[in-house]
């Protein structure tokens, strides 16, 4: 090896050190701008290389296309401005959104009622034109599974699925280390797995979907119904007059012995569990990752339903709760961090 004595003679190491320090610094500051559009919230964040959220901005998701587009661009501009003083070099923009998405075009194809005026929407062109950065777009459930693959329980797992509960229920399928999009970008719409013929109406226009039983919105609807009938509050619970009723109230009521709340939650867990058994029988993953506000509540009942109702070969598939703070947002960032640094 001829390099070694030369390096010693001419004192190369110190020079090399300062260059490698510069490289370290560049890698350290490389970041993504991530956007997540859900049925309730619009989030923007600056995300670092290791999946660390440097700064996050949250607003209610506006109800019209115009207002939503305007707010997205405004929040992004603010984040870009802040990124300078935060010492973050933004490589690109990743967008996670409800609805069917063509990721090659960066277009939302169609959406359920959960996000109004959100069909045939080109997200790439306006965002890229306004920020002069490359833009990647995918469905929020799909993004959540990308985040698990890069930063979460899905690391080094070749085949797994994610089910993320927010206002609705999103899904993502990783098969042979790759996201499954399907023939018309409608694969992994796991919230719309139907578990009954006459079930509750879903915001997709159908009925009996697991989203209509077990989503944040479905449980909130049931909680409000019980509250209106004066059946929600039990001893040990104190609901203030102006307090918004959510699924969380249903869970605390059930824990305090409210049978009505317990019945609603049992039905929701069973619907979700049966839906997940259907997923196991379709793609046979090695792992199921639950995320979102209700994940830790659903984990045990879903595991039990699998043991009771899946075929023997699928009965031991593990269900875990995500440890990621914001899987959809982090997945949006991961598209940027993976593609923008690819050579
Ligand atoms: P989205 O991505 O659909 O905008 P989020 O992931 O931000 O939704 O979650 C919002 C949903 O979670 C709403 O339906 C809200 O009612 C519900 N929610 C918020 N806080 C809680 C809580 N503490 N427990 C249960 N559900 C909650
Ligand atoms: C709905 C559907 C899915 C989405 C899921 C979770 C739309 C607009 N949304 O089922 O595409 O993945 O909600 O969304 O069609 P969230 O609002 O709960 O985050
Ligand atoms: Mg969401
Ligand atoms: Ca999906
Ligand atoms: Zn549906």
Helix proportion: 40-55%
**Which structural class do you get from the secondary structure elements?**
alpha/beta
Strand order of the largest sheet: 3-2-1-4-8
Counted by DSSP, the helix tally is 11
Strand content: 15-25%
**What is the number of strand segments?**
13
Characterize the biggest β-sheet.
5 strands, mixed
What best-fitting shape do the alpha-carbon axes yield? globular
Order of helices and strands: HHEEEHEEEEHEHEEEHHHHEHEH
pLDDT < 50 stretches = 1-9
Oligomer class: single chain
Overall mean confidence score, pLDDT = 94
Hetero compounds: adenosine-5'-diphosphate, 2-acetamido-2-deoxy-6-O-phosphono-alpha-D-mannopyranose, magnesium ion, calcium ion, zinc ion
Rg measurement, Å: 23 Å
Distance between the termini: 29 Å
